[in-house]
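Task: complex structure prediction.
Instruction: return C-alpha cells for all chains below.
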Amino acid sequence: MTGSAYDALHARFNRLGTIEEALAILSWDYATMMPKGGANARGEQMSVLQVIAHQQLTAPDLEDLFGRAAMEGGRDVWAEANLAAMNRQWRKAIAVPADLVAALAKATLECEMIWRQARPDNDYPAVRPALSELLNLTLQAGQAKADAFGLGLYDALLDDYEPGGRSAHIDTLFAELAGFLPDLINTAIEHQAKEPAPIQPQGPFPIVRQRELADRMMRALGFDFGHGRLDVSAHPFSGGIPDDVRITTRYEEGLFSRSLMGVLHETGHALYEQGLPAAWRRQPVGVARGMSMHESQSLMVEMQACRSAEFMQFLAPVAREVFGGEGAAWEPENLHRLETRVRRGLIRVDADEVTYPAHVVLRYRLERAIIQGELGLDDLPGAWRDGMKELVGSVPETDREGCLQDIHWYSGSWGYFPTYTLGAMTAAQLFDAAKRAVPSIPGDLAKGDFSNLLGWLRTHIHGRASSVPGEVIVKEATGAPLGTSVFRQHLERRYLGRT
Amino acid sequence: MTGSAYDALHARFNRLGTIEEALAILSWDYATMMPKGGANARGEQMSVLQVIAHQQLTAPDLEDLFGRAAMEGGRDVWAEANLAAMNRQWRKAIAVPADLVAALAKATLECEMIWRQARPDNDYPAVRPALSELLNLTLQAGQAKADAFGLGLYDALLDDYEPGGRSAHIDTLFAELAGFLPDLINTAIEHQAKEPAPIQPQGPFPIVRQRELADRMMRALGFDFGHGRLDVSAHPFSGGIPDDVRITTRYEEGLFSRSLMGVLHETGHALYEQGLPAAWRRQPVGVARGMSMHESQSLMVEMQACRSAEFMQFLAPVAREVFGGEGAAWEPENLHRLETRVRRGLIRVDADEVTYPAHVVLRYRLERAIIQGELGLDDLPGAWRDGMKELVGSVPETDREGCLQDIHWYSGSWGYFPTYTLGAMTAAQLFDAAKRAVPSIPGDLAKGDFSNLLGWLRTHIHGRASSVPGEVIVKEATGAPLGTSVFRQHLERRYLGRT
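Output:
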C-alpha cells in the first residue's frame, strides 16, 4: 500500500507517537532525576513539545488524508482498527478550539500549584476559585467533544481515560458495589478480629536490600530489565515507553512491604506495556486499551496474584533471606494476614482491597453530581463527609484527609476515578478466567513461577493492545461481560473465608 | 519592541533552543540511564526532534523576518549580537540542501557503527569505505557553507566548533607548538627521572567513597547541585542544559585519581554552563562561545587549578580522610608528582598535559592535509605513525592505538581537534591573568577556596557568553591575543621546574 493515504497517516501518527515518547522520558526524568533548578526549563521543554504534537494532530491536510483513506481498501483488521483510532484521536483534537486548549493548560498548572499548598494547609477555600475555573474550562472542552461524538458530557470526559466507556454501565456496576460493600467491610473487619493478630516484621530494612528484593520479584514476574528500569520518586508511577518502561517506588527503612507491593503493582503496568505488539509501536491501535485495562494489569499482579496466600509461600523465604529476618513474623500465613488487612481508612491510596472501591464509588458519585450541576463546589467538603460515612464508615475531620487528598480534580482529570475500580473488577474476572484455563497457576505462584499467568495475559490482553474495544477483550478472555459478581466472590473468599 | 520582527525571531529561536534542550536531556539519558532495549526508540525520538528543529530553523518566513529585523533600530549590543548569531545559524542551515543533511546523518550513523567494531578489531580497511563516503559528504556540506560565507573549506568546517576560528591563525600557533614540544617532552621526562619516583596510593577505593570525594570537590569548586547532577557513563561527558547540567564519570576501584581528575575537568565545563547569563537562555547569544573556550574552562579547572601544587595541599588530606589512606603516598607533593607525570603514550585521552598538544597538532595536520586533498585515506595509518614519531616520540604498532583511536572523524567531526589545544593555551593565558588580577588565587586553592577564581571567570568569561567573538574575550580578559608563550611558560615552570 505504498503511497496510500493510510500510509501517509501511519507516518504522521508515527511522528506524533515519537514526540509523545520523548515527552514520556522527559516526564520520567522530571520526577526521578531532575534537580529542582531544572523545573522551569523542563516546563518549557514539555510545553513546546506538547504544542508541536498538537500541531501535528491538527494539521490542515489530515482531513483530506482521512477522506482518501476511507476510500482505500485492502486493510487488515488491525490497520482498520488503527485508522478508526487515528480518526477518533484527530476528531477529538480538532473538536476543542486552540485557545481553549491553551486556557485549559494554564488553568491546570495554576490550580495544581495552588492545590499543592492548599492540601498541607488544609485550606479548601484557597483552591476553590481555581478549581472552579479549571472545572468550567474542563466542562467546555468536554462539551465540545460531547457534541462532536454525540456523547453525554460525563461520557465525553470519561472517554479520555476509558475509550468507549459509558456512565450508564458504571452507574449499574457501582450501584451493585455500593449495595454490598458497606456490609462486606463490616463483616471482613469482624472476621479478621477473630483471627490471630498479624505481626509486623521489625526493621530497619536497608534500602539496598529492599531494592534487591524488588529486583528479584520483578525478575520472577517477567519484567525485562533490557527494556526498563526501577528508580525512586516521591510518588510511585509507571512511565516511559513500551520499549523502555520506567517504574518507580519510594522506600521507607521501617517498612518494606509498602514499597514492595507498590513495585509489584507498577510491574503489572510495566508488563502490559512490555507485552504490547512491537509491530504497532507508536500507532493508536498499538497502545494499551485504556486506564481500566491498565489498572486491571497492575491489580492482577499486586492484588490477585501477589497478595494471595500462594504467592506468600514464595515471597516469605526470599524476603526473610534478603533481610536476615527471623521468627513468626516471616511465616507466609502471617505476611498474608498483614497484606490483606482491612481498615476503615480515610486515604484512598492507603486503602486495602475491600475499602478501596468504596472510596472510588464516592468520588464517582461526587464528580458525576458536580459535572451534572447537581452539586456545587461549595458543598463538596460536606458531601464528601456524608459519603465517607455511608460507604466506608469513617469520616475525615479535615479536608486534607477529605476532598483535598487526591490530585485528580485539581489537575483537570474529571472522569478518571471509576477506572480504578473497573480495573479491580476486571482483574478479578481475568484472574478467575486464567485459573480456569490454566489450573496450575496458584501452585505456580507458590513457586514464584509467573510464566503461565504471564503467557495467558500476553495472549488475551497485552498482545491485543487497542485492536478491539475493552469490553470485547474482557468478554472474549473471560466468557462474560464485565460484572461485579466475580469481584465480590473474590473479596468474600479472601476476606470472609467463604469458599 | 513588542511585535517587532526581532521579537518574532527571538520567539522562534526560543522554541528552537527549547527543542535542543529536550534533545540534550534525551541524549544524557541515552548515555547514563537507558536500558539497551530502548536504543532504537530513542534513535527515532532524537531523529524526529532533530528534523523538527531543522524545520524550525529553515522555515520559509525567516528570510522576511531577518530582512525586517535588519531595518529595526533600538536594540542594545546583546540583542544586536543575538540577531547576528541567529542570522549566522540560519544562513548555515539553509546553505546545506535537505537531502545532503539527510545523507550526512545516515552516513554518520553507518560509519560510526562500523568504527565501533573496526576499532577493537584493529581493522582500518573495514571502515575506510564508510569513512571515505562520510568525508565526501562532510566536504560537500562544508563547501556549501564555505560558499555561503566566503570561507575556505577547512575554516567552514572549523566554524561549527570554533565560531570565527581561522586555520591561518592555528597554523601559526601550532607551528610554534611543534617547534618546542618535542624538546620539551624530552627534557620534562629527563627532569622527572631525577626526582623521587611517585608512589601510587593503594586501593581498593570503593565507588561510594570516590563519589563522596567527587561530590566534596565539586561543591568546593562551586558546582550548583540545585542545577545539575553527577552520574556514571561509559565515556565521561558534560551534557544537559545550563539550568540542569549533567556531568558524568566512570569509576575504577583500583585508581581514584583518573575518575577524580575527569570529574574536575567536567566540572569546569559545567561551571561555564551554570555561569551563562539567565536572561539569554536558549538564544544564540546566550550560549557558550565555542569549543575552545569551553575546553579552556575545563582545563582551567583540571589542569591549571587542580593539578597545581597548591591545590594538592587541599586535596591530599581530604582524599586521605575519605579513603582512610596512610603513608607517604598521600603527601601533597607525591600526589602532585603523580598527577603531572609525563609519558610518551599512544592514546590522546590518556595523555598528560605536555604530550597532549602534540597529539592534537598531529591530528590537525592530518585532517588539514586530508581535507585539502594532500593526503589520501589509504595513506592515513602511515602518516599517523610518522607524525607520532616526530611529535610525541612514540609509534603505535596497531591502528587501534593509531588512527582508529578517536571517534571524531568517524562521526563526521572534521575541524574539531584543534579546539582541544586552543583551549589548553587559552586556559593557561586566562589563569595567568586571573592570578595577576587576584594574587591570592594560588593560596586560595591551597585552602580549597575557589570563590575568587570562579568570580573572575564569571565576569570575564561565563557572563559574556557569545556576546563578542572569542578572540575579544581572550584579549580583554588577559590583555593580549591568544598565543603560545604563556602556555609554554606554564609547561616549563611545572615540568622543568623553571621559575
